[in-house]
Amino acid sequence: MVPRFGHSAVQRNRLRRRLREIARIDWMPLAIEKGLPLDVVLMAHTAAYHASFDELRTSLRGTFESL
Question: What pTM does this model have?
Answer without folding.
Answer: 0.79
